[in-house]
């Protein structure tokens, strides 16, 4: 008997929605699009993030559009249409970074509702082709639209593609998602990760790649990505010698290959152990040595497996779950980093997913890894023990507010309850001006807007000063680029009774500072976004709230002057 074919309709909008939600973060999505540029043999790639009007660098949903520009091989009109196909039938090279033919569509739609492509081949510029989710949803059809570039659009094209013989510009706009990371967080992640992700391509002597991150509509400088070997193999010594370990130098503890059945290409493994991060405070080391240790950035987020596929990092700091709560590397082996190199040949046996972010370890590989890692894990544990012995409880101290300023950098400022387009722009602009004026009026002569942490400049979100007017515990400051910060009043009784008694890096002090900062963000957005009350009235209410809050906290301190001393005694 012959089967009867029955056509089944496909909901194009739901399909597009589904592929956009396969687990992309903004940075992961951008990497997937950058992969296409690398595959196209680009020598230069530019990633632009455009700041949305009325938003600050720290606001959530502050990116209006993303633009990725390269001078790769480019595409003609048929090539662009092929790139927009869902599940392109295109044959990829053996070592291509691409897979499945979904990358640009799935990654792009996770960032915004519209993907536009302009490309150039043999000096000839294409028309603009675009995919628009709103139009797909409206007409329930997966269609690509083509239109001629206007003179303005041609004039706006980057010099990189205009001066090159070939290249491509991918633009993702209509970025309207409610919970997208702030521009600050995305830029910080790109800057921190791209040098590791594309390390092999960036440091290639014959065909070096350059990547630049640009912040559009801000005063910030462009960032040129530097190749970064997360294992620091050039600095590491050849083995771990427990009897002569200096608690300073990385040590190579593994360099092996694993051959899986049915796969011609072996999996390559290298492992390095690092000293405890707190050795950067050890007074027995020179300032240069302490700075070197900080540069290793030893932490839980930077431990475990760094898995590369065809030279591109696809998993960062993976302890590799092998069932339930079991992992190949214990969470306390913070000083161990393992580089695992895969090729396309391993895709099927390791079940590499569409986003190239997830893999599954087969039992054969798990057993081999457990055997090979045994000595490395033991050495890591021993090295940290020796670091603890040398430290002898030496404590890391920073200036007041520094730790909280650091751990709130990526806390995007937002008002999730504000109704879109209901805030009068003139009102918002006027109030922003008043906040800036008030902020400058209270500025202390010696006040610094940045603090140096681990050789990096961080915007100071918590500042201790004598310049706060009245008996308030803190006042709210505003920076038009960075957003909110708070000035803590050193003359308030709560500072004398509690804050001054806690060490700058104390967890309790950070919690209190974070509460003040979050209260400051809330006050700023209340002032900026409540537009059905005139300026004077809303200022009066917020001032009254601050005065009463500080007054009652002051009274509480009078009743509990020895609370911290009593806690220490108990």
Written description of the protein model:
With 570 residues, the chain is an alpha+beta fold. It has three domains: 12-224, Histidine kinase-like ATPase, C-terminal domain (Heat Shock Protein 90), CATH 3.30.565.10; 242-391, Ribosomal Protein S5, domain 2, CATH 3.30.230; 402-412 and 423-569, no CATH class. The protein is 35% helix and 19% strand. The chain contains 17 helices and 19 strands. It has helices spanning 12-19, 26-39, 77-84, 103-111, 133-139, 151-156, 159-163, 183-197, 199-202, 287-296, 363-391, 402-407, 425-441, 493-497, 507-529, 535-559, 563-569, and strands at 44-51, 63-70, 114-121, 124-125, 128-132, 145-147, 167-173, 210-216, 223-224, 251-258, 267-273, 304-309, 312-318, 336-342, 450-453, 456-459, 462-465, 474-479, 483-489. Strands 1, 2, 3, 4, 5, 6, 7, 8 and 9 form a nine-stranded mixed sheet that branches. A five-stranded mixed sheet has the order 10-11-14-12-13. Strands 17-19-18 form a three-stranded mixed sheet. β10 (251-258) and β11 form a beta hairpin. α1 (12-19) crosses α4 (103-111), α1 (12-19) packs antiparallel against α5 and α2 runs antiparallel to α4. The chain is globular and about 90 Å long. The model has no long low-confidence stretch (mean pLDDT 87).
